């Protein structure tokens, strides 16, 4: 379990203050985040899961992204929080058409559509506990470009092209048979 206090992440003070009215006193919380890591190609859809074990159903689960490795200069970027069936709160600059948050406590899903290499990073689910912010262990998402495919050579259709195929017989002698191939449209 990865727990951090808000003082360790000064950028989250505003986030913490905005949800202060929603806080509930509850025991030790654990966030189970899956998968731990994921490598996908460009334009695929990715679904991340976060499950709370001992959390009331009113607990909001926040999704954050860290684009670079943990360092003094790294920070969490607020992506979204599912508020109700018809409402999701998105972070500033988040492409809402690419990102969907589904469900509420105890299980919450983050769905990313048409991912690009710029979407790579560590994704965290988080809840506001008392007195700590509680984080999932994170999902390392790596988006790699789709390999370029070389175009197939164009072959005129409707013609016969001879092709030789060497087929060994069961005996010592071998024979070659001539085959023809017709390319149909």
UniProtKB/TrEMBL annotation:
Pfam families registered for this protein in UniProt: V-set
UniProt lineage: Eukaryota, Metazoa, Chordata, Craniata, Vertebrata
Topology of the protein relative to the lipid bilayer: Single-pass type I membrane protein
Keywords for this protein: Adaptive immunity, Disulfide bond, Glycoprotein, Immunity, Immunoglobulin domain, Membrane, Signal, Transmembrane, Transmembrane helix
Key word DNA-binding present: no
CDD domains assigned to the protein according to its UniProt record, in alphabetical order: IgV_CD8_beta (cd07700)
UniProt xrefs under InterPro entries: CD8B, Ig-like_dom, Ig-like_dom_sf, Ig-like_fold, Ig_sub, Ig_V-set
Parts forming coiled coils: none
GO-annotated molecular function: coreceptor activity; MHC class I protein binding
Major subcellular location class: membrane
Organism per entry: Muntiacus reevesi
Any single Gene Ontology cellular-component annotation: plasma membrane
Gene Ontology annotations of biological process type: adaptive immune response; regulation of immune response
Compartments it resides in: Membrane
Keyword Membrane among UniProt keywords: yes
Protein name: Ig-like domain-containing protein
All copies of domain Ig-like, residue ranges: 21-127
């Amino acid at each position: 379990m990865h727990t951090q206090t808000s003082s360790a992440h000064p950028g989250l003070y505003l986030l913490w203050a905005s949800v202060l009215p929603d806080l509930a006193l509850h025991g030790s919380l654990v966030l189970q985040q899956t998968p731990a890591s994921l490598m996908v190609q460009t334009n695929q859809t990715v679904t991340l899961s976060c499950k709370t074990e001992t959390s009331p159903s009113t607990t909001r689960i926040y999704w954050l992204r860290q684009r670079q490795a943990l360092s003094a200069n790294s920070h969490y970027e607020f992506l979204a929080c599912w508020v109700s069936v018809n409402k999701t709160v998105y972070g500033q600059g988040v492409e809402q058409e690419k990102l969907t948050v589904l469900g509420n406590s105890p299980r919450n899903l983050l769905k990313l559509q048409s991912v690009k290499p710029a979407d790579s990073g560590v994704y965290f689910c988080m809840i506001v506990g008392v007195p700590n912010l509680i984080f999932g262990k994170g999902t390392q998402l790596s988006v790699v470009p789709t390999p370029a495919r070389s175009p197939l050579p164009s072959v005129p259709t409707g013609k016969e092209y001879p092709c030789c195929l060497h087929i060994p017989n069961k005996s010592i002698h071998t024979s070659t048979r001539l085959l023809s191939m017709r390319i149909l449209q």
